[in-house]
Write a structure and sequence with these properties.
The chain is α+β, with helices and mostly antiparallel strands. The chain has 20 helices and 47 strands. The strands form ten sheets. Strands 16, 22, 23, 27, 28, 29, 30, 33, 34, 35 and 36 form an eleven-stranded mixed β-sheet that branches. InterPro entries: Alpha_rhamnosid, Bac_rhamnosid6H, Bac_rhamnosid_C, Bac_rhamnosid_N, Rhamnosid_concanavalin.
Length: 937
């Protein structure tokens, strides 16, 4: 039997450079041809030298099955040191067959572990800035000498704003949109890069450009200057020589600054580049910078080094490329169609331009009903002056190339104005840009529309995972807390998102308000971190007429960092504090995510408990107020977005209604669910008192909910599917009500023509709820519905991503790239293919494979690369039977559940290996046809 150890990771990353975890976590996978193989023991050995001469840590052989999140137990780690490590693993099965192997050598490198390591200064290139205007991107440069005998060179750097850097004219990294997005005033990421290959003995040049980015560019849809008015930079280069000496090149007042071709740079609104103003050779040594001025040190409250943290997540990079088709629209415009809705930008090659010629590129998602380019689905209110736009002013050379470095857009179509040359292949290349997360899962089946739905969901995840999870890459780019918790489970199926969410959840803890309230966006992109700018914004809002609906919307979503806004703390949005860490623990099995996030989750639930105990002036006539204790377990205060974006919502803006009538139904359900999950988290962490406390609270909410909210006929809210779905999904119905609620839900779905009427919060739970209740064919009928509202309606119409509105593609409205409804894909993995993790053995250490065939499907297959290796579940109908194939990775076990005649289920408890089964399905199909009327099949 052949055994192999592979995919060694440190802090979930492959050979990370510049981490700051003082006790890093190690993970590895093992493969074997044998069946039922488990890890019997492991041994980690670490070295300071690649030659493995002297071990600095030897764990010894440890009898353990653990191969995920094994914590460093060696000596104290130091800044900038590189550690090499390998692991020895022994596998065995129940028959005593033993295999052993040694991994290859891998490494990790530490970053700056303490504030004193930062000897560089924050430098500021700008004197005065135009607060409401667009500023040119500052350029910085510094020449320095490298002595002969250079062994290695590293650069550590960050910025207020975005930065890009070059050494001797060569771009320093493939990573883009650095330093990423965090709650900048409390923690700011820096990056570390190996730049040895970019330096040579003698004179060298470091060049840096700074962009507005999330720091002072457009966030929250239309807000600017969220964190500050001026951009700045900090960076230091460590040179290590063969003789053992070290030298630092640091940002200080010797750096010089000027501006160049980038006259404007906003991530959302776009870039204006004047090629005539770009200094030739400014990125190389020997450039004449005598006309450039020296920078000054940043000395205000933002010039902090104690908040600098390593970038421990994956970087944002250029990923897939597309070669667009050129189309002429009916109105005569030249438009590029790349065939896929993406987040990214276009690399451009112009030929034969005259000096000063102005080219304009506008990026959008749609063509209108006549086939002309339009932004109407992205415009909120009146037309914005600038949106997703590149303006290029030509130098007049035979051939000119340009690519934005500080702007990113959501688009499938690009309108080109001012360029009349024939477009040749290679002139325009579209590039998808997102966090370089490893793809780990896929689902395919016999229905091509469902396969396209899977592709659309994956592309919406790519388009909205750019260092933070956003709602859309176009008009808002808000990192909504609600959207992320809705989609988090599905996100784990498609990509290894643990480091991505671990980083984002860390910002959630820091952004949580003192009273426990969770903001609706993380980092907060509505309430201002910048107090001076908040005052300016609020004064402008007060100038609006009182009857202006936008005045209410702005007042509800804009607030201070002390108290937040009215809309912060909304049920279903704030509950991400509990739900998302729980989902990450279930998918990856690392209890650190619970340990880190438990205080935040507990503080949120305590906030909900407090708010629910407050009396509601609006609802004191309701029956639960007749018994004062019952009223404490109904959350009928505060603002809540509720189900949001239901397909038959007719109001242009429901803010006023929701503000005046708090959605106590949805809020109370999430009150129960978060208390229930928090109790489970406390139990996992060994906090017995908390486990009992929050379990008791959840049970009291459940009692009150069943007493007052569920009607005799099983309905919860007349004509609405969402409350019934949520009650069943959360386990909120007691035994007396469960069957009636399920029956009523099915009745509503049938009456609606097997169409859903759910919005953001409940949609992901609809199909699992139906399947759990035994309504399997009905679940597939809703899934395969091709009329709106339904998942496949937009697919059939030609969408390549998930839309914000159920009828968005048909009516060209709202965002074309919102991943929330794509959460249905978790049903395909967990029910159609049947791969479900186990909270008692999380991270797929043990899991269930229980496929649920149905609908028109004749075959389906899901593959998932877990933390232990590849899981596969495949089935197909053939010759009157269903043939199954399953794959279970080494060091895991699975319970395979397959239906038998008579309605029974056969269970098979297996270990690693490939397992094949076959069962008769014709009798089952006949039984279903007998039980379900023809019109319902």
């Amino acid at each position: 039997m052949a055994m192999k150890i592979y995919d060694l990771r440190t802090e979930y990353l492959d050979r990370p450079l510049g981490i700051d975890a003082v006790q890093p976590r190690f993970s590895w996978k093992s493969s074997s041809d044998g069946k039922n193989m488990k890890q019997r023991s492991y041994r980690i050995i670490a070295f300071r030298e690649q030659g493995e001469k002297e071990a600095i840590w030897d764990s010894g052989e440890l009898e353990s099955e653990q191969s995920i999140a094994v914590i460093w137990q060696g000596p104290k780690l130091h800044s900038c040191e590189r550690i090499y490590w390998k692991v020895f693993v022994k596998l065995e099965n129940e028959e005593g067959i033993l295999e052993q192997a040694e991994s290859s050598l891998t490494w990790f490198e530490m970053g700056m572990l303490q504030e004193l390591d930062w000897i560089a200064d924050w430098i500021e290139p700008e004197d005065e800035v135009e607060i409401d205007g667009r500023m040119p991107a500052p350029y910085l440069r510094k020449e320095f000498i490298v002595r002969p005998g250079l062994k290695s060179a590293r650069i550590y750097q960050s910025a207020h704003g975005l930065y890009e850097f070059w050494l001797n004219g060569q771009r320093g990294t493939e990573d883009v949109f650095k330093p990423g997005y965090t709650t900048y005033h409390k923690r700011l990421q820096y990056q570390a890069y190996d730049i040895t290959h970019l330096l040579s003995a003698g004179r060298n040049c470091l060049s840096v450009a700074l962009g507005d980015g999330w720091w002072r560019g457009t966030t929250g849809g239309a807000y600017r200057n969220n964190f500050g008015y001026k951009v700045s930079y900090i960076g230091q280069i460590l040179l290590e020589y063969e003789d053992g000496s070290r030298e630092w090149i640091v940002s200080d007042e010797t750096f010089k600054t000027s501006t160049g071709g980038i006259r404007e740079c906003d991530m959302k609104e776009g870039e204006l580049f004047d090629a005539n103003l770009e200094p030739e050779g400014w990125k190389e040594s020997g450039f004449d910078d005598t006309s450039w001025k020296f920078v000054h040190l940043e000395t205000d409250q933002y010039a902090r080094k104690d908040i600098l943290i390593s970038s421990n997540s994956v970087p944002v990079q250029e990923m897939e490329t597309f070669h667009p088709k050129v189309i002429k629209t009916p109105n005569g415009d030249t438009v590029l169609n790349i065939g896929q809705n993406i987040a990214g930008y276009v690399k451009i090659r112009f030929r034969g331009l005259s000096k000063g010629q102005r080219i304009r590129l506008v990026h959008g998602e749609a063509l209108d009903e006549e086939g002309n380019f339009t932004l109407k689905n992205l415009i909120v209110g009146k037309q914005e002056k600038r949106m997703q736009e590149i303006i290029y002013i030509a130098k007049g050379e035979d051939e000119e190339e340009y690519c934005p470095i500080f702007a990113v857009f959501g688009f499938q179509y690009v309108l080109i104005q001012g360029y009349d040359k024939e477009i040749e292949p290679g002139d325009f290349t579209a590039v998808a840009v997102y966090s370089a997360l490893e793809e780990c899962g896929d689902f395919t089946c016999s229905n091509p529309l469902i396969n396209q739905l899977v592709s659309n969901s994956r592309w919406s995840q790519k388009g909205n995972f750019l260092d933070v999870p956003t709602d859309c890459p176009t008009r808002e780019r808000n990192p909504w807390s609600g959207d992320s918790q809705i989609y988090a489970n599905t996100a784990t199926k498609f990509m290894n998102v643990y480091p991505f969410f671990e980083k984002w959840l860390g910002d959630m803890s820091l952004e949580q308000f003192k009273n426990g309230k969770i903001p609706i966006t993380i980092p907060i992109s509505t309430s201002f971190h910048h107090a001076e700018e908040l005052k300016r914004r609020q004064s402008r809002i007060e100038m609006l007429p009182d009857d202006n609906i936008m005045k209410l919307v702005l007042k509800m979503t804009l607030g201070s960092m002390e108290e937040g806004a009215i809309s912060d703390g909304s049920a279903g949005w704030g509950d991400t504090a509990v739900i998302t860490p729980y989902v990450m623990y279930l998918a990856y099995g690392d209890r650190q995510i619970l340990e880190k996030q438990y205080p935040c989750a507990k503080k949120w639930v305590d906030y909900v408990i407090h708010e629910a105990r407050q009396k509601s002036e609006k609802y004191q006539h309701m029956p639960w107020y007749k018994e004062s204790e019952d009223a404490e377990f109904v959350w009928d205060t505060d603002f809540h977005f509720g189900e949001w974006c239901e397909p038959d919502e007719t109001e242009a803006s429901p803010f006023l209604r929701l503000y005046q009538n708090p959605d106590y139904n949805t809020a109370t359900m999430y009150y129960f669910y978060s208390a229930k999950l928090l109790s489970q988290m406390a139990g996992i962490l060994g906090m017995k008192e908390d486990e009992k406390k929050y379990q008791d609270i959840a049970q009291k909410v459940k009692r009150v909910f069943n007493k007052y909210f569920i009607r005799e006929d099983g309905s919860i809210k007349e004509g609405r599917q969402a409350p019934s779905i949520r009650a069943l999904a959360f386990g909120l119905t007691d035994d007396d009500h469960k069957e009636r609620v399920a029956a009523k839900l099915l009745e509503m779905i049938k009456e609606n023509g097997y169409k859903l009427n759910t919005g953001f919060l409940a949609t992901a739970h609809l199909l699992p709820v139906l399947a759990k209740q035994g309504f399997i064919e009905e679940a597939y009928r809703v899934l395969e519905q091709t009329e709106s509202p339904g998942w496949l309606a937009n697919v059939k119409a030609g969408a390549t991503t998930i839309l914000e509105n159920w009828d968005g593609y048909e009516n060209c409205k709202a965002s074309f790239n919102h991943y929330s409804y794509g959460a249905v894909c978790s049903f395909l993995f967990e029910y159609t293919a049947g791969i479900r993790p186990d909270i008692d053995a999380p991270g797929y250490k043990h899991f269930t494979i229980s496929p649920v065939p149905g609908g028109s499907l004749t075959q389906a297959k899901a593959e998932y690369e877990s933390g232990y290796g590849k899981i596969l579940s495949s089935w197909k109908k053939k010759d009157g039977k269903i043939e199954y194939e399953f794959m279970v990775p080494v060091n895991t076990t699975a319970t395979i559940c397959l239906p038998e005649d008579g309605g029974n289920t056969a269970e098979y408890h297996v270990g690693s290996g490939v397992w094949e089964f076959s069962e008769e399905w014709g009798a089952q199909k006949k039984k279903i046809e007998e039980e379900v009327p023809d019109e319902d099949i």
